Each structure stands twice: as structure tokens, then as C-alpha cells.
Amino acid sequence: MVIFKRLGGGLSVWLIAASLLLISCGSKTRTSNTPHVVIQTAYGEIELELYENQAPKTVQAFLSYIDSGYYKNSQFYRVLTIENQPSNAPKTELIQGGIWKTNYARASTLPGIPHESTQQTGIEHKDGTISLARGAPGTAGSEFFICLGRQKGLDAGGENIADRQGFAAFGRVVKGMSVLRKIYKQRESEQYFRPPIPIYNIVLQ
Question: What residues have CB less than 8 Å from 109, skipping those under 6 apart?
Fold first, then answer.
């Protein structure tokens, strides 16, 4: 940015160094409450739209992990299919990824994100919805999953988790569902991809 200021009839030019640094670094700045991010995988790219107005704490945390570079060289490592779940258990279909296997030390030290349930946000677990994995409410961190098909059991009140508070959905796939489905069909054993699917990075679009 260049600021022109008139002094005593002359023209002085002030260069704002900070602005020049921001321009030169080429960093992307969010200008929307529905930021888009791209998961860069070995099978192609998956673009997601995130709903910051509805799930602000979840989206802000996820974007901070992206900005910090946590997802560089991470993985999709888990898959749930109808066939690989116990016959007497509520079924769900999804792929799960993050840094749990590639950077467990970092994943285990992240503070829990306050739980934003689907009852609060209105974001249901539909085909292509991205959501956070968790133990107890408020323990979610860097690990996420993406749904294949409608998964009512993951919403607040659903039967897929004992506390019935569901999971924190915060966005959806807008491009790359074919990539998602291709990853879903890769070889697995005991609910884990063999081998895991590389995530090269997740970046702000």
C-alpha cells in the first residue's frame, strides 16, 4: 500500500512496510464466512465449504490447524463400511483422516474444541459432510471424517455414540465427491486403510 500525504504544498510518499510484506508473502486471506479449503490427496483434490456462521468454534480451530501446517503429509487412515462393522452395531459410512498416525505428539496435545452439536448448528450429517471425531464432548481436535451418504446416527440424538450428543459437523464437500468415493473403496483391514491414503496438505482455497 502507498499512502500520499500533502505537506506544505509538497507531496510526500509514505511506504507502509507491513503492507508490502503482506503483499509479497502471497498469503491468502479469508473474505467470507463460508471459506473453501482443498484436501490434496494421492487420488485427487476434495474441495470443502465450511460454515463459520453456524459452527464458529469448530471452523476457526480447523482453519488454525491448516494455517499452522499440521495437515502437511497427513493421512486418511480409517474407513467405516457396512461390511466392516459388527452386525449388532448401528452402521455408518465414512472415511476418517488427520494427524493421529503421522504426528501423534501434536494431535495428543491439542486442546479440545467446545462441542457444537448439530442441534445448535443445524448442519446434518449428509453425503459429503465433514465433521470432527471425538471421545467425550469437547475433546475433538485435529481428526475429522467425511460422510458417505446420510448418517442420521451421527447427529444429536443419534445412536452412533453413547452420549447421544452427536458429532460436530462444520462443512460439506462441494467438489471432488468422486475422489472421496474412490478413497472409500480402497483396501482396508479391521476398519483401517492398508496402506493409509496420503494427504499431501489441506489448504485455503
Answer: none
- How far apart are the C-alpha atoms of 99 and 198, rounded to whole Å? 11
Those residues with Cβ within 8 angstroms of residue 77's Cβ, 6 or more apart along the chain or in another chain: 96, 97, 98, 100, 101, 192, 193, 196, 197
Least Cα distance to 193 among 73, 97, 107, 86 occurs for 97
The HSE-up count of residue 97 (CA atoms within 13 Å, CB side) is 27
Q: Which three cell numbers stand for residue 107?
A: 494431535
What's the CA gap between 119 and 166, in Å, rounded? Answer: 9
DSSP β-ladder status, 74-80 and 10-15: unpaired
- CATH T-level fold of 29-204: Cyclophilin (2.40.100)
**pTM (2 d.p.):** 0.84
C-alpha distances in angstroms, 202 versus 74, 88, 160? Answer: 9, 36, 28
- Cβ 48 vs Cβ 179: under 8 Å: no
> Over the stretch 118-174, which tens digit does the pLDDT of each residue have?
999 999 999 999 999 999 999 999 999 999 999 999 999 999 999 999 999 999 999
100 in helix, strand or coil? Answer: coil
